[in-house]
Fold this protein.
Amino acid sequence: MLDRYVETLNRLRIGVLILSVIAVLVGVAGVRRLDVDTDFDVFMPSDSVRMRALRSMTDSFGDSDQLLVIAEVLGPESPSERTLLNAVQDFPAISRNLERVSGVSAAPSPVPDALLELEGDALAAALEAFQEMS
């Protein structure tokens, strides 16, 4: 049975190849027309109280589209290369650079400003607590 299948494919190889190319082209054309709406408001009736509240919130605070970026600052391969203090001190600058990107409205730093103002034992204790959380 398998031999007959292979013989048929071998005999019709040009036709199978052309049919495969056509199927791929049709698939690519279909994917290009595909539109995905990730907004959860498509599930709410447009005249509902909750939809009006969502529109009011969006008008006041801006769009709800968000992107979360997670960065590993201390890799397991060489933790001595960067200290936690260096990594913590870099976050505000990274946030400021991200806020300069077109279309980015805010890029809050995960590091509170008060942590950057600490010194000595207070800074060491805060960094230890910070490391335990991650």
